[in-house]
Specification:
3-stranded mixed β-sheet; alpha+beta; 13 strands; about 260 residues
């Protein structure tokens, strides 16, 4: 990739010209304005390659990385991203990279989190925003929040969940035990979603164990889509079966 061609500037362009071109294109293609995320990443990567060619560019550009505030304008995003002084944008190149572990509930909710950074002057508490729907091992840059105004790159690691599994990026899967009679006759069972909401799931008559049923819109939501929750049906045998029932079932099996 030729970063100069991506930004539409000449190789002799000044840093100010490069930054103006980047800001114009990034505002046009930013996902929060309905732009294409892949194009936005390409533009951001091209800018980094030109302005800071020695820096490690292996990180994700997401709305959360710019600390985008609800209700703010697109200009607010770039005010956060750049440190403006006397009309000139100055990007700090030094970075701090740390990994943090979050839960699948954190992924679904997003939101603010305070973390601690170690520096020569001691421990510093900083606030970050977890992007809703973030994927495991994603790197997000938070400008100017580290010690001495450094950028902080957070690597998000997601802990395995005991009950829910993430499939694809926004869909979830869980399992529910359904008693023998409900599988045969049909009925309603309770399913608890990732965020603790109790919902009813209708089980059709003659449902086979291992069947997967979809609960639309009960997966993970990110900035572009909402996933579904897939429920795998397990058979739960009744604890007490009367002799009368055993006799009827035996007779039926012999027919």
């Amino acid at each position: 990739m030729d970063p100069y061609s991506v930004l539409g500037v000449s190789r002799n362009a000044s840093q100010e010209e490069v930054k103006k071109a980047y800001k114009k294109l990034a505002m046009k293609h930013h996902p929060d304005r309905g732009g294409d995320e892949a194009k936005f990443k390409e533009i951001s990567d091209a800018y980094e390659r030109i302005i800071n060619p020695q820096a490690n560019n292996n990180f994700e550009y997401t709305p959360g990385g710019f600390e985008f505030r609800r209700g703010g304008s697109v200009d607010d995003i770039f005010s956060d991203f750049f440190d403006f002084h006397n009309g000139r944008a100055q990007r700090r190149s030094a970075t701090v990279q740390v990994s943090i572990w979050i839960t699948l509930e954190d992924v679904a909710q997003g939101g603010d989190r305070q973390i601690s950074l170690q520096s020569n002057s001691g421990v510093q508490a900083v606030n970050i925003t977890i992007p809703r729907g973030v994927l495991d091992n994603t790197q997000v840059r938070y400008p100017d929040i580290g010690p001495n105004g450094q950028d902080v790159i957070i690597v998000f690691r997601i802990r395995p969940h005991k009950q829910f599994q993430r499939i694809k990026s926004v869909d979830l899967q869980t399992e529910v035990d359904v008693d023998f009679w409900t599988l045969i006759l049909g009925g309603m069972v309770n399913v608890k979603t990732l965020l603790g909401k109790n919902m009813g799931l209708r089980i059709p008559a003659n449902t086979k164990p291992g069947t997967k049923m979809k609960m639309t819109g009960q997966g993970i939501q990110n900035t572009r889509q909402t996933g579904d929750l897939y429920v795998k049906i397990n058979a739960k045998l009744p604890e007490n079966i009367t002799e009368e029932i055993i006799t009827v079932l035996t007779k039926h099996r012999g027919q």
